[in-house]
Amino acid sequence: MDKLSIGIVGLGTIAKKMHVPTLSSFKDVAVKSAAEANVKRGERFAKKWNIPEVHGDYTKMYDNADLDAVFICLPNFLHYNAVKNALEHDLHVFCEKPMGLNADEAYELVKIAKKRNLVLAVGYNRMLEKNYEKAAEIVKSLRLGTILQAHGILVNPGPYAGWIPSSDWFFNDKYGVLYDSAPHLISIMMHILSDQITDVSAKGISTMHGFGLFDNIACIFMTKTGIVGTLNVGWKTAASYDSIQLHGTGSSVFANPSEVEVRHGSYGPLEKIAENIKLTKNIISAQVGRMNENNAPNDTYFKEDRAFIDAVLKGDKPLVSGEDGLRVLEVLEAIKKSLDDETGIRVSLHER
What's the mean pLDDT in 337-341? Predict the structure, then answer.
């Protein structure tokens, strides 16, 4: 096929601001249809982007629209059914993170996609930010020596930080922040390390009284190669912040969306001054770049959407496959199990 016919399931913020504008910029893609429970709202948006059809139910879109693939942009708890139904209609699927709230169901989706020879990709755009990609390159270059520790943090004023909510789905599960922020942090960490998390132990607190959900979680983990580390996610912080730091026998790397710093054991006063000047320039450059974006989709969405299209049209591999998405869900479930125990028991992940 020369041009891919795409359907969009769910016209929330992530679809309207990121995926539809990005997909509409590709010459080998046609956004042919959309499914949105609020049909009138969907029709207004569809008219703006010249999307011919709007359905109130995605199953009707799957049955009646002539599509090759779909983008699932629904709330987390609706992902599984929407993805399974699409795969059973022989449609290639890109699903926003995570694939669902259950690793067993995600495993089923992976099996269906494999059996039907369909592309199943998951949206973990944060791991594609250039500074995290740079950190992954540094790890692969072996400049850090043997990595001993790895630490990640992702906090923000959420839930619903940065956009107007159209539903209360964040509060459908007492592990709200775990399935909102932690999937990104886990995928970033495993991507940079090229390693898998095998053991976790977690504790959480709730500061939003009356909701009974964990809004701040700290997790200790170990990887397959023996690296120890921590993952910390949280809502209700004054600032939004995320970063990764890795410490090895050769050097350490510190990365966040604004900067990357490699620190060596011989780090002296003059080196520190020079490095601070360099980092300041990088931070200013990054901030200026963000000011010039004018709310346009950032390049991480372009990368993951382009990779999915190429996987369908050319047989390339998506940036985050269904198998990769399954591994993230397995870690999430292990953290959830540890949180369920007041002592924060250690939970080991088992290979399927």
Answer: 92
